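Please, structure for the following, as tokens.
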Amino acid sequence: MQRQLSVQTCGGDAEETMETKARVLLVGLEPEIVDYSKSPVPGLTAAKVRAAVEADSAKLRSLGYGVKSLYVDDGKTAEVELANALATGRYDCIMIGAGLRIVPPYFLLFEKLINVIHRHASASTKLCFNTNPTDTADAVQRWV
């Protein structure tokens, strides 16, 4: 799935065209609120998670993907934030981070977010899942 994005410079007369393979939404817990003592991935910290997400986002962009990251809270506003993101943008693929799926205290939130996606995303939107913060690009590339 290729899309053309046009970017105008500040002067308004030059235009650059860039091909995008697909638009991707990366959904994960706000790294600062995670209790890493409950994570099955040893040695993680908020800083390591942020660095890994940023690195894989940059990798996806270099491969031609349009990428948006959405960090959600532990459930107070997460569903509304995701619904708003889906209402204001169309995504070909949504990646849900491992922290939402494999850390037991967040599993119910994971279910709720899946249902938000089911209600608000296009039926053709692919879902993918990473196993840790460093294999996000691999997860996305499996589906789009």
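The chain has one domain: 21-143. Residues 21-143 form a domain with the Rossmann fold fold (CATH 3.40.50.2300).
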